[in-house]
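Technical note accompanying the year-one report. For the benefit of new consortium partners, we illustrate the data format agreed upon in the data management plan: each record pairs a sequence with a structure-token string. No post-processing was applied to the example shown here.
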Amino acid sequence: MAVQAWIVDAGSILKKGTPEKMEIKIGDSVIFFFQSVRFKELEVDGKNACVQTEMAFQRHIDWLEENGLRLKNNCHRTWLYVRDVDRNYADVVRGRNNVFENEGLTKDTHFIASTGIGGASEDCHALVGVDFFSVDGISSDCIRYLQALDFLNPTSEYGVAFERGTALDLPFGHFRFISGTASIDKYGICLYRGDIQAQTERMFLNVSKLLEADGSTLSDIAYMVVYLRDIADYMWVKKYLSLHFPDVPSLLVEARVCRPEWLIEVECIAVTHNEE
């Protein structure tokens, strides 16, 4: 078990809701919307991962619309946990693509930063679980989508729809949400198959270039989650993190990455603060 805590110095903080669906008003203007969608058997029995993905996104869309918000404008980060990811991920991608097309999210506008990883919720009929993070109270010029085209290609080039990273300028700091990132090149090809050391180094090079695009560095990482396809790689990766990121809180877990050839993936948030 792990707990992630956000320590925010921004005046008043007001919470409303439950851990599955919570609004958090920070200061005078910014509101976070956190939602976790986990299905029960009666909701999804007989439905494939594509339909379940569409259903999960629709729940968040409905909640946002109740608050006068839209997925396209206000949702900035998702986490998709996929049961038997090697079998079901293609359907998840198809379901998300369908939702984005309906909501006006395209390669010519923007997508949403995301992690898609092997994971399972309590009910065995639930093939997909999704966590959402949306924000109200910031203008469009406080949102940037991160690219490093000499190192990673746009995800749309290989048929998926997520941003490599999204930067938000919030009243209490500049946050860069880096999507699940692996050992991939500018053509979308996995590099260093079967080599955990080389994949790890390339993975963090990719992350560093995404952060660099927004004036940030690896030293600004506030926390990271590292996913391993094979738990046998745990000790080497743990030593690597201890050597290169000794002061960064990290969670190192066994979880199948969405492509079989990827041995490792990382997601993180990097934070810098206004001088004042």
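Partners are asked to follow this layout when depositing records. The chain has a mean pLDDT of 95.
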